[in-house]
Amino acid sequence: MNPPLPTEILHPIIKFSLPIVSFRTYRARYRLLLVYSLVNSTWRALAKKELYEELFVKDLKEAAAALSAEGACEAVKRIHYGLPYPWPDSDEMEDLDLGKVELPRSARELRISGFRVNGEVLPSLAQLETLHLRWCDLGRDDVLALCASPPYFVPPPPLHSLSTLSLGDPYLFPTAFPSWTAWFSPATLPSLSRLSIALGERSETVGQDEDFRQALSLLAPQLTSFSLAQGEGKFGTEADFPWTKFTTLSRLALFPNYWEATDLLQAVLQGVPGSVSALRIGDCRDFEIRYRMGRFWQQDVLEALATAFVEGSPSLQNLQVLSIDLLDDDKSDGVDVELEKLHQVMAARGGSLEYRLGWEGEDELLDWERFVEPW
């Protein structure tokens, strides 16, 4: 009989045998880990540890039950709280009350989907390193304006550990939540270095909010990674958008709208300093337009990139990795020509060109995780 594998070898084997974590794969992961737990006590301990590192819960009741299990509070690192694709109306959202379920001290990442998040929740997030807010309303629209105004408003305490933040289709009620410049700022987020913003129909007004752009201009100098999905708006192309403030930016991901896809790229190339070493450009989330405009969209973007290289855009002077999301693998001649041009340019500077299929979701929905974690 062969001797058992050491734990330091067995654990990576178990980890790499599992599908990538997401709402779609959680059940498959659970079934595999259940099988592994039946092998012997060593496998069971490792499977249990891997299971509790990622918790997927829909509501407070599920969260309380999951965290009450033996060993859960010591093992959990990431909590996914809410539904994968809730699409709730604003008035149907429940308030997030983390006071009823204390976050385990081991938790470093929290993903909240489809809840109202009120200002008093912010202090309870102090231990987190990563926070994803998706389809969340910040505050309530039925609270008096006095609540978020001086002298009643108290600025939130700094979240010193938070380095990664994503806002997916956010909506802020300024009468009941600290203004963007009050909480979405270096004072509250002193360690933030990775930011992702994905706007959609329900958050289109956020992109038009001058306070939001002002807050972003204050955060921009400390960001090394930034991802922007325009959705249906023009966010990022405004004359006062603070692209010039991203002075330490290393990784940039852009998901422009279809009908004016090159506008966002041109705005970036005219404003972002030359510190960017990795650039990703992908398709946005407009499902209906995708089939009508897909190839025109990607060819226009590729042509604009090739032209920018020829003209010596300062924003691209240090680029080493260029990643392009293609809408399908049936590329037209025009797309092939532009891809070859870009491949030659990147090879000449010792860099690389990567491209992948961009449409990764199911049930006519894009995989939202590629917006918040593009690298």
From TrEMBL:
<protein>
    <recommendedName>
        <fullName>F-box domain-containing protein</fullName>
    </recommendedName>
</protein>
<dbReference type="InterPro" id="IPR032675">
    <property type="entry name" value="LRR_dom_sf"/>
</dbReference>
